[in-house]
Every structure is written in C-alpha cells, then in structure tokens.
Amino acid sequence: MSAARSPSAPPAARQGAGPGRPKDLGKREAILTAARLLFLEQGYNGTSMDGIAAAAGVSKLTVYSHFGDKEALFNAAVQATCNQLVPETLFVADTSAPLREQLLGIGRAFFALVSSDAALATQRIMLSASTEDHIRRLFWQAGPARMTAALGSALAPRVASGELQIDDLELAAGQFFCLIKGELHSSMMCGLTSPVCAEVAERHVASSVDMFIRAYARPVRP
Predict the structure, then answer these.
(1) Percent of the chain predicted with pLDDT > 70
(2) Which CATH number covers residue 171?
(3) Side-chain half-sphere of 201: how many Cα atoms within 13 Å?
(4) CA–CA separation, 187 vs 209, rounded Å?
(5) C-alpha closest to that of 66 among 51, 52, 82
(6) For residue 16, what is the DSSP state?
(7) What is the pLDDT of residues 67-115, one digit of tens each?
(8) Residue 117 pLDDT greater than 50, yes or no
(9) Burial environment of residue 85 by CB neighbours within 10 A (0 to 12, 13 to 18, 19 or more)
(10) Residue 112: phi, psi to the nearest 5?
C-alpha cells in the first residue's frame, strides 16, 4: 500500500446534501459494498474514492455526499461488516433473559466474524508493517473498540442487579472477546488452521462463555 493519504473531499461534499434532503439508501448500500470489497482487496491507501464510485456505479460526488471523506467511509465499512455478523440487537441489556444465552449468542456471532476469510485478511492487513498507524486506529475504533463498549454496556445492568461482580466493565468485555478468539484464532491468523467445523466452534465458544461467567459471577453466600 502506498503512503499517500486520502484526497480531501470537495467543500460542497463535506457539507452533504441540503437539510431535509433524503439520501438514496440503495446507493449508500452499493457504496458500502464496493468499499468493503476494495478496502479488503487493495488496502486503505490503495483504494481510491474514484475506484469505489466506479465499482458502486455512482458518481464520486455521490460517494462524498453520503460519507464525507474516505476515512468516514472506511469507518462505516468496518462498522457495516461487524454489524452484519454481530448485530447490535445481541447487546441489548435485558436482565430478565438468561445471561449465558445472551453471551452464547454474542460469542457465536463474534467467533464467526473473526474467523471469516474477510476478517482474517483484514486483520493481516492491519498487522502489516506497510499499514499506517492512523489506519490501524480507524479500524480499532470502528470495530473492536465499539464492540467492547457495546458488551460493557450490556453487562452493566447485570452488575447493577448483583448477577455479576465486575469492577472494570471495559476490561471484562475485552477479556470476553479474547477468550472467544482463543488460540484457534491465532492459529487461523498464522494460516495453520482452517476454519473449524460448527461442532468445534460451538464447544470452544461455550467453554469460553462458561469460563467468563465463573470468573465474574457473584459468589453465592451460604
């Protein structure tokens, strides 16, 4: 990837469409789809707004109108990829629902995300020496950091109700995702392990969830 930064958006594009003017959701989705594919194939610096516009079948002005600049589009593309496999509805706080079932749902979705070919390829790009630090920060804030914050918010009511005993929600949420990734993810990142079968993935996720609950469940007093 080249070291060149993204071109600045035209002033009018930065301002977006006029107030109250609806955006074309079909074009927005086409732009996001094209951006996700090109960022994956060509890296951040290798992807141009012209290329995204051409792949989406829209004008470059339309791309800028929807997303403002390339950094905002990259952020939206990472968020869209995460939300596709790990929807925000999984993190809805509901203390009336079983904790284990909610964590299993989050764990299954997250493991499917991080073990997908697209996610593995993206993470390898982020680890590449040619990827600039500000691109890594963009990726981290749009993906891992947002998901950690979402889980922390989902765990907070469980702490308030006394179901869990957690002093640092952000730390605990990060530990949960590290458990779910486990050694399997590291092995896949190194190309030593192919995507595992559903049975192995389920066993891995379930054991990780159970370990997390054992670590943070409020002790039952006799």
Answers:
(1) 88
(2) 1.10.357.10
(3) 20
(4) 20
(5) 52
(6) -
(7) 999 999 999 999 999 999 999 999 998 888 999 999 999 999 999 999 9
(8) yes
(9) middle
(10) -60, -40
The secondary structure of residue 19, as a DSSP letter, is: T
CA distance 222 to 12: 67
Q: How many domains does the structure of the chain reveal?
A: 2
**Structural domain that includes position 137:** 86-216
Same domain, 105 and 65: no
Least confident interval from 20-24, 27-31, 109-113: 20-24
Q: How far apart are CA 33 and CA 159, in angstroms?
A: 38
Confidence label for 29 from pLDDT (cuts 50, 70 and 90): very high
Are 62 and 90 in a shared domain? no
| Structure token digits, residue 84 | 């596709």
Instruction: Give the residue carrying structure tokens 């950091």.
Output: 145
Provide the token pair at 170. 């952000």
∠ CA 26-29-91, rounded to 5°:
125
Rounded-to-integer distance, Cα 197 and Cα 220, Å: 36
- Give the closest residue to 216 by CA, choosing from 159, 164, 157: 164
Total-model pTM: 0.83
Report the pLDDT value the prediction gives residue 195, as an integer from 0 to 100.
81
Instruction: Say whether both 179 and 98 belong to one domain.
Output: yes
63: nearest Cα among 49, 51, 74: 49
Look at residue 24 in the predicted model and tell me its pLDDT. Answer: 84
